[in-house]
Design goal:
Hnrnp arginine n-methyltransferase1; 4 domains; seven-stranded mixed beta sheet; five-stranded parallel beta sheet; 12 helices; 27 strands; about 20% helix; globular; cytoplasm; Arg_MeTrfase
């Protein structure tokens, strides 16, 4: 950046710097041992040297290591290569500027490998599409926002983990004055493209970065987010959602506002046998001449540590569910680091208790209306499905007996939870339980997907139902779901049915559907 020959005049340059607290700015000064006069410098006396030029360095400044003893810093169109004469000099620079750099709350609780995988996953448009095509999720969010228009009209809104920015657009549809869309994954650039193509650059500002690290230009009236993972808690984004309250005005609102996690005992002999059978591979005593049976018990332990993501009929539940409530307006981040949910179930049927089933509901409490998003097995299916945790040893219970115990959720650095379940049939004293890894679920739902469904607020053409015979679903089950959707005014088209008197084979896209005689569609 210096004129030709200036290096010879200036002589050796050396660096003075300071360690910065989080979010602070500092100055990097290259000092000359002699006074230089010329229009290209802003010279002034400074101790034993003169400031040749000065620029601001922040934590967002582009920088990288070059070779073994150099460091490149770029600010705007200006690049400075710092070359250290000794390895110890470079070591001191890295110690003060890298090692001692303060970590954000997110970085402190998250392994680097987990964060990298997480943001790469959500940086893909295919995953954004998967979430957007969950009609129940997307339509419910739009419904909650538009039906509470007065809460958004002329308000400043913060969208946490905005993804493609769909919730930001809903806020604008409700009359928001300005929306700050915070997104840390690479999909932020695509959100910016959507904002520009919809001519909303003056009202939706995309802030690329983690909510724990970005600086919002102003306090906000409403925070919106979709921070939900499997079993409500997976991915630990709820903590980021709670962290964002630092930008919320004293009487501000949050959408969603609160959540209920439900759990109930279930009986499912087929699931238990199927899951246990996954380990039968390791029972072989002559696999290409090798005895694998020594690993069978370890394989059983590993498979039973996996929560099962799928859906099921309400009839397998053996008791009324117990719920655990989280108020997002009041809960603290540390409240989610370790949670314990005690339970006492009064059994409504006799049989083997194979484990506990989990689902959740979230509420959007607005000034005009409260809207619920439910993932209960009695409701239309969402991309969250439900989650079941098996006991390695089932328990037998009779009608009227009580099953008591607790579920512990312990947060880990892999953006998930370790789950510990203990249960006992009080009258018999029989005990069981399990420890599970929510980060590593078993996805059993096969090809059961509800993709595009028209609804009362945003019409999406086409209906695609993929049915999987392996889970025992019937066409009639889906008709029941459509009827429920009609009652909730999510599905508004008239239903028509037809009985096939002869077996038929149909293909829906890549899915082969075998319809036996008597099927109702």
């Amino acid at each position: 950046s210096l004129p030709a020959g200036a290096q010879d005049q200036i002589g050796p340059l050396h660096i003075s710097s300071l360690v910065l607290p989080e979010y602070a700015e500092g100055f990097l000064r290259l000092m000359s041992d002699i006074v230089i006069y010329g229009s290209f410098t802003d010279t002034f006396a400074k101790g034993d040297g003169v400031c040749v030029f000065k620029f601001t360095v922040t934590r967002e400044t582009d920088c990288c290591r070059v070779g073994t003893q150099s460091f490149l810093i770029t600010v705007g169109c200006l690049s400075v290569l710092l070359q250290f004469r000794t390895q110890s000099g470079k070591g001191t620079h890295e110690t003060t500027h890298v090692t001692e750099r303060q970590q954000s709350v997110f970085d402190q609780r998250t392994e680097d490998s987990s964060a990298l995988q997480y943001f790469q996953f959500y940086g893909c448009l295919s995953q954004q599409q998967n979430m957007l095509q969950d009609y129940l999720r997307t339509a419910t969010y739009q419904k909650a926002i538009l039906l509470n228009e007065m809460d958004f009209k002329d308000k400043i809104v913060l969208d946490v983990g905005s993804g493609s920015g769909i919730l930001s657009f809903f806020a604008i549809q409700a009359g928001a004055k300005r929306v700050y869309a915070v997104e840390a994954s690479p999909v932020a650039k695509f959100a910016e493209m959507l904002v520009k193509s919809n001519s909303l650059s003056d009202r939706i500002i995309v802030l690329a970065g983690k909510i724990e690290e970005v600086s919002c230009p102003e306090q906000v009236d409403v925070i919106i987010s979709e921070p939900i993972g499997y079993m409500l808690l997976n991915e630990r984004m709820l903590e980021s959602y709670l962290h964002s309250r630092k930008w919320l005005k004293p009487k501000g609102m949050m959408f969603p506002t609160c959540s209920d996690m439900h759990l109930a005992p279930f009986t499912d002999e087929q699931l238990y046998i199927e899951h246990y059978g996954r380990s039968s591979f390791w029972h072989q005593t002559c696999f290409y001449g090798v005895n694998l049976s020594g690993l069978h018990s370890s394989a059983v332990d590993e498979f039973f540590k996996q929560p099962i993501v799928d859906t099921f009929e309400m009839s397998i539940l053996m008791a009324k569910s117990v719920k655990h409530c989280i108020n997002f307006m009041e809960a603290k981040e540390e409240d989610l680091h370790r949670m314990e949910i005690p339970f006492v179930f009064k059994l409504l049927q006799s049989g083997l208790i194979h484990g506990l089933a989990f689902w959740f509901d979230v509420a959007f409490i607005g000034s005009k209306m409260t809207v619920w998003l439910s993932t209960a097995p009695s409701e239309p299916l969402t991309h969250w499905y439900q989650v079941r945790c098996l006991f390695q040893t089932p328990l037998f219970g009779k009608v009227g007996q009580t099953l008591s115990g607790s579920v512990q959720f312990i947060a880990n650095t892999r953006q998930s939870y370790d789950i510990h379940i203990t249960a006992v049939v009080d009258q018999s004293g029989f005990k069981s339980g399990n420890s599970l890894d929510l980060k590593n679920p078993f996805f059993r739902y096969g090809s059961i997907v509800i993709s595009y469904l028209p609804n009362v607020l945003c019409s999406v053409p086409g209906l695609h139902l993929c049915l999987s015979a392996c889970l025992g679903y019937t066409v009639g089950c889906w008709c029941k779901n459509l009827q429920t959707m009609q009652e909730q005014r999510v599905w508004t088209d008239p239903l028509q049915s037809r009985v096939w008197h002869k077996p038929r084979d149909y293909r829906l896209g890549k899915v082969h559907l075998n319809c036996p005689a008597g099927s109702v569609v």
